[in-house]
Amino acid sequence: MTTRPSTASAIYWEPLWAQGRRYRPLDDAERRLLDEHLGPGRARPALDIGCGDGTLARYLHHELGYRTTGVDCSPSAIALAAAQDTGPRPGPTWRCLDITTDDLTALPEPSFAVITCRLVYRWMDDKAAFLDHVRQLLTPGGALWVVTEITGRRTSTDPALLGLGITPAEAETLTAGWSVVHTADLDVLRCYTLRP
């Protein structure tokens, strides 16, 4: 009997990124929500978990003014993100790192004012443990920004697409234990701003 690799691991994601797979781009509506809920960075540290091609990390870094680190477990995703840093200003720091299993002391900062997790939370095998890692990395008063699909919002009948959202129980795990929870909906997605 063969077992499928964890969807939170490089074994799962590396072939997809290496084959040129791309995911939902950051749009104007989400940028407005980022501006509203995270605000100006003022060179404070930010961490983008599962950064993929680096679009969100670059937005945090160049547009909002955070000192951003993008991490992804896929070497191909990190290479793609780094290859797009062609401007005159230094871009984000990129690290190939699995946030769930690697040594977090490899990160360039001990803690972060903002941690983003866009289209990644759904893929975490142990969501509670993942959130514990994030809480350890957040500065007091920091914010976790999560963008995830919600089950039942797609009109598709394709079972593979219908399974992309988080369930009400997974949403409850995500929001439990935070003193501030703000949500905003974007079609099939929900954006969460969570503060300790």
Give the structural class: alpha/beta
Helix and strand pattern: HHEHEHEEHEHHEE
How many H/I helices? 7
- Spatial shape: globular
Query: Stretches where pLDDT falls below 50 for ≥5 residues?
Result: none
Q: What's the assembly state of these chains?
A: single chain
Q: Helicity, in percent?
A: 25-40%
Distance between the termini: 43 Å
The mean pLDDT is 90
Note the beta-strand portion. Answer: 15-25%
Main sheet attributes: strand count, strand direction, barrel closure: 7 strands, mixed
Main sheet: strand order:
3-2-1-4-5-7-6
What brief labels describe this structure?
single chain; 31% helix; alpha/beta; seven-stranded mixed β-sheet; 7 strands; 196 residues; 7 helices
Description:
Helices cover 31% and strands 24% of the residues. It is an alpha/beta fold and 196 residues long. A seven-stranded mixed β-sheet has the order 3-2-1-4-5-7-6. α3 links the parallel β1 (45-49) and β2 (67-72). The relative contact order is 0.15.
Record the SSE blueprint.
Blueprint (H helix, E strand, L loop, with lengths): L9 H9 L9 H11 L6 E5 L5 H9 L3 E6 L2 H9 L9 E4 L15 E7 L8 H11 E12 L9 H4 L5 H8 L4 E7 L2 E7 L1
Parallel strand pairs: 1-2, 1-4, 2-3, 4-5
Antiparallel strand pairs: 5-7, 6-7
Summarize the structure.
This protein is an alpha/beta fold and 196 residues long.
